[in-house]
Amino acid sequence: MIDTFMQKKYLQFIALLVIFILLIQTIGPAENNLLWRLPPLISAFPLWINDSIGYLMFEWWPIEVYDPDIEEFEDKPLVSQVTRMMSGFILFMIEFIRELMLGGAKTIVTFSGWDWATANPWAKLPGVPWTVIAGGSAILGYALGGRGLALLAGLSMTYIALFGQWEPAMQTLSFVLVAAPVSVFIGLMFGIWAFKSKTVEAVLNPLLNMAQIIPHFSYLIPVMVFFGIGDHAGAIATVIFATPPMVRLTLLGLKKLGPEVAESGMMSGCNNWQLLTKVLVPTARRDILIGVNQVIMQCLAMVVLASLIGAKGLGIDLLIALNGLKIGVATEIGICIVLIAIMLDRVSLAWANKQTDYFSDLSFIEKHKYSLMFAAVFVVSIILAYVGQFIFPAGFNYLSIVPHNKGISIAPLLQSGVDWIWDTFFFTLKGFNEWLILSVLMPIKAAYLGTPVVAVFTLVMGVGLIVGGIRVALTVGSFLLFIALTEWWDRALITAYLMSVSVIVSGLIGIVVGTLCAQNAKSTRFILTYCDTFQTFPSFIYLIPVMMLFGITDTAVIFAIIVYASIPALRYTVEGLLSVPESLQDAGTMAGVSRVQRWLSIELPMSFPHIALGLNQTVVFALSMVIIGAMIGTDDLGQLILGSLSDRNGVGNGLILGICVACIGLAIDQILRTWANQRKAALGLN
Amino acid sequence: MSLQNATSSSNEPVIRCESVYKIFGDNAESLLKKANGAVDAAKFKEAGCIVGVNNASFDIHAGELLIIMGLSGSGKSTLLRCISRLTDATAGKIIIEGDDILEMNNKQLIELRRNKMGMVFQNFALLPHKTVLENIAFPLQVKGMSTSDSINRAMEMVTLVDLSGREDYYPRQLSGGQQQRVGIARSLAIEPDIWFLDEPFSALDPLIRKEMQDEFLRLQNTLHKTILFVTHDFDEALRLADRIAIMKDGVIEQLDTPANIVLNPATEYVRKFTEEVPREKVLKIEAVMDAANADDTMGELSVNANAIIETVAEAILNSATPVRVVDDAGQTVGSITAAKIVHVLFGDHAASQSETTS
């Protein structure tokens, strides 16, 4: 009897469920009942963090600094001086790139002073005409990926220019062009360091896991405290957010090489530096460049959020449009962001996949054809822009730059479309919305909030115990305990409710649609392209259409999450099914299985570990979207994090709240990953 | 070149291993000290250590081709890596041309590799971002040779390994055999005295493998390097080696010439390998000939002592009298009878039968 119970996992799960329900039934809400809610024992944490950061920034280690305004030496704390220098440097870089693209005098002022710049009005950087950048993008696309990519890059840039979004788009781009290289550099360094030293790797790994799940908002707050507000702060927050995938992929790429490559380098007589720069890094080129691609994507994902702490560009415009519920304008800006994202994604991927070709006997023109093409575009564009001065009225030289919001606009058209949808389907949408909220979402939310803390612990730790033994149970238990001891347990329950409802729906969609699409090659290709494309959309973009349909409600948030989070579920299902070995399929066919039998008894079990990893990603995606959902009004952890952004002493709160969100993600990750690994081992995969 | 000649003319071995141990695991060194030389792999495994190489001692002389043969996990590659110091041996001495490489610092080691050692790898380990020519020139360039000099030298190597016309290809554009030719050229570019080959032909198709072995013998006949060659293929070892070391579980079971290994296997394990080996394809005449005897009435026919039996068997079998065996200079060194050949070809049973009937 006990033996069967120990062996049959489903019996254990049933027992767990029974205990869980009993606990809910017997324990009711009560102020001082520890089984109902734990006391907020660590609610002082945020205050300590605030105090220590305040001390670090404003008191610790004073140094003498010359203040040119009062012409005297002054004591100032070291940290704030260091961060000021960093801010200054990064701001200078951003301004410099921005002025190359749009024109301006700030860079020259930095080296000379305002007086000189005003006295010499000619001394300012001229912005390059948009045609140069559009043409340049097309040539870059052509060089890396052929005609299709050239068309994509050139047309995207042209669209942005013609629609009058050139200025904010270039502001955004300038900030990506600073943040991305910095992230790549730092990521590469840490990746190599972790490759060289097991200790570093062991320290970095959990940090990287955390960094992947801590919501973006949480990064913004400490950055704001240390670096203030502005483009540089946005860039620094972006760097912090975009570096972890670079570290990970560098490490992965280097580890994948196998010992022989390093050995061959050593036997060739390389010293350590030569080994690294001439052998290891070039050989791991592709993975490292995929890392660069990831960095660029993360930078674009941050475009909107960075605008919350003062980054200029498309992000802030989108934010303003959304706040004013101007869906038409928001869509137009959103399309610009998406175009930039897709273009940069494809170009950097093409770069990663491009292999060097060698042609020994090329003429000068053939060798330098891309540079020559660019030079031609440059000269022609400059001439056109010069001529344009005389054709167009002053300030409207369309051949140089289309002024902001003075281009073509389809916003009114889009807006009227939205209005039409509202007018036509108002009752249907509203009815559906109300039904969903009142009869589905509210009861689920109430059920979550009505669960005693001990029942949650029992359920989650119980699952951990059954799946992975006592170690996993204790790990997930400690994640939960952290949240339970803050004052935000109830908020966390709401986050968990939003997340779990959408993860279940996304997971189902992913597995069902994924399976259907994996049935033939054409639909497989279609769904993978769909995933590739929609994955490049910065998550914020998803809020636009759902707000349009459902207004500012939980329904909108949940729909946004479902659309966003079903992408990894879809992708992993399709990939998992495709990875089932052909020989097994053949064996099934020869055993005479039907289509459904094949799916149930061969394909699903074989691909389940992979699908489980997909669900893991679904959870991560869903969590990040739940938090961003705060922008359109939820009442969970995300809302509090957003709130702490505008709080002078919000750092501590923001960080602890971020860690709470990460704890939810990490607990689920722990269970799913253990389970997937066990299945993998049982099936003898890898 | 004069230095090289000086060392090869003396009797000093080029590589000498003295009680080399390689044990993987956290407390390998303390365990080894406690074991006091008597390492038992099973006991070490209980303590969480894996024995890679267990008390290996041997010499390799200038121009000699020593093959380390063993199945996977026997420690053959580990031993090779200890001698090239890609891994550090746990204990023992590895003396290369008089210097213990375990005592060398990183700088000396790099110098040694830049000037005296070359190595060929099982999976080629070519740099994918460099062309054939650049790959071959790579060891010269890291040494600090100018680009034009190194490319000129690499061109010579391309001709040597018969890859002319493909010097501007990338490794991915070459077949496996061609890639390994590049690997060989790269390892020889610095004109090393010592040449390590780690299962160089194992990743190739059987036909290509045979071709590459011939190529390898051709190269060795002109270059006369001191070679340490690792393989799991016993036939390959018999075909190429001057001497073979057979390894099992980190221990060298037997180290001897191919003929002696086939004729007198030292352990049961070695015997299992030799059982199926067709002797006439391995043994040379000198391994089975009788001492020269003035009384013998020998015919006009004579065979070279270095000839593989198979190649001359038919002639000897057709001869009524014992056949004269001569060395390269034409001096008589022994004689051989048809009965001896029959013995080699058909084993003890056939030989005794034929003796009783005659």
Provide a descriptive summary of the structure in words.
The complex is a heterodimer of chains A (686) and B (358). With 686 residues, chain A is an all-alpha fold. Chain A has helices at 2-7, 9-26, 45-58, 78-102, 106-112, 114-119, 130-145, 147-162, 166-196, 198-213, 216-227, 231-256, 259-267, 272-283, 285-306, 314-323, 327-353, 364-367, 369-391, 411-449, 453-468, 470-485, 489-517, 521-536, 543-550, 554-578, 582-591, 595-628, 637-645, 650-683, and strands at residues 62-67, 72-77. Among the domains of chain A are: 2-48 and 413-683, Orthogonal Bundle (MetI-like fold); 61-119, no CATH class; 131-162 and 357-409, no CATH class. Chain A has 30 helices and two strands. Chain A has a two-stranded antiparallel ribbon with strand order 1-2. In chain A, helix 9 (166-196) packs across helix 12 (231-256). Chain A is globular. The model of chain A has no long low-confidence stretch (mean pLDDT 86). Among the domains of chain B are: 2-16 and 60-116 and 192-277, Rossmann fold (3-Layer(aba) Sandwich); 280-357, CBS domain Like, CATH 3.90.1280. Chain B has helices at 2-9, 28-35, 41-46, 76-83, 106-115, 132-143, 147-160, 176-188, 206-223, 234-240, 258-263, 268-275, 279-282, 285-288, 309-317, 338-357, and strands spanning 15-24, 50-60, 65-70, 91-96, 99-100, 117-120, 194-198, 226-231, 243-248, 251-256, 290-291, 302-304, 323-326, 332-336. In chain B, strand 4 and strand 5 (99-100) form a beta hairpin. Chain B is globular. Chain B has 16 helices and 14 strands. Chain B has a six-stranded mixed sheet, sandwiched between helices. In chain B, strands 2-1-4-5 form a four-stranded antiparallel sheet, sandwiched between helices. The A-B interface holds A 258, 260-261, 263-264, 266-271, 274, 278-279, 282-283, 285, 355-356, 358, 360 and B 81, 84, 86, 106, 110-111, 113-115, 117-119, 121-123, 125-129, 131, 138-139, 142-143, 168-170, 172, 186-187, 190, 196.
